[in-house]
């Protein structure tokens, strides 16, 4: 019978630099000396956590490997769908787009207070701001919540029926 050797890992803690670039994005740089692009993976989960992982053979052979795992909590105003990563010069560079609050709506509200009726009507007929930037309106968030609740209720009903059938037979 062939014996397989267990891989021995050396855990490393990479250096992380997080900086804000303007009001619309943050950049995270993770220094990964000795790693190549193919050896690194970046994921964003549904709970607002970015996870960067990687493993590679150690420089000195002998069955040892080097690996890392870094979890970072995304800012509340981060557009998780727009997160982008690239690998260059032994650094993993992750761009986190930030949703900037739309202050135009507040300005319109202030202007509307003292505006004549004709100007107010014209403001009301303008289409709502585009959501192409990835931000969702409150109505879209409520609709999404209702759909999720309906799906959860359907799954729960299915489980109850399955248990009831099992117990009744």
From TrEMBL:
Residues covered by region (Disordered): 112-139
Keyword Ribosomal protein (UniProt): no
Keywords (A to Z) from UniProt: Cell membrane, Membrane, Plant defense, Transmembrane, Transmembrane helix
Domain of life per record: Eukaryota
Compartments, record wording: Cell membrane
Any single biological process term in GO: defense response
Pfam families: HSP20
A GO CC term assigned to this protein in UniProt: plasma membrane
Transmembrane segments: 145-164
InterPro entries assigned: A-crystallin/Hsp20_dom (IPR002068), HSP20-like_chaperone (IPR008978)
Membrane topology: Single-pass membrane protein
Start and end residues of each SHSP domain: 6-113
Family recorded in the similarity comment: Belongs to the small heat shock protein (HSP20) family.
Name of the molecule in the record: SHSP domain-containing protein
The species this protein was found in: Oryza brachyantha
């Amino acid at each position: 019978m062939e014996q397989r050797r267990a891989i021995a890992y050396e855990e490393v803690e990479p250096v992380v630099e997080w900086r804000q670039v303007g009001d619309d994005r943050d950049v995270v740089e993770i220094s990964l000396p000795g790693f190549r692009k193919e050896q690194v993976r970046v994921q964003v989960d549904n709970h607002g956590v970015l996870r960067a992982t990687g493993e590679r053979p150690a420089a000195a052979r002998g069955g040892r490997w080097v690996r890392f795992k870094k979890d970072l909590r995304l800012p509340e105003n981060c557009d998780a769908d727009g997160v982008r990563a690239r690998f260059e010069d032994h650094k993993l560079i992750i761009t986190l787009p930030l949703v900037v609050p739309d202050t135009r709506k507040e300005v319109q509200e202030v202007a509307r207070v003292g505006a004549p009726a004709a100007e107010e009507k014209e403001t009301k007929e303008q289409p709502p701001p585009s959501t192409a930037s990835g931000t969702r309106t409150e109505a879209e968030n409520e609709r999404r919540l209702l759909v999720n609740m309906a799906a959860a209720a359907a799954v729960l009903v299915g489980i109850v029926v399955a248990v009831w059938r099992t117990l009744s037979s």
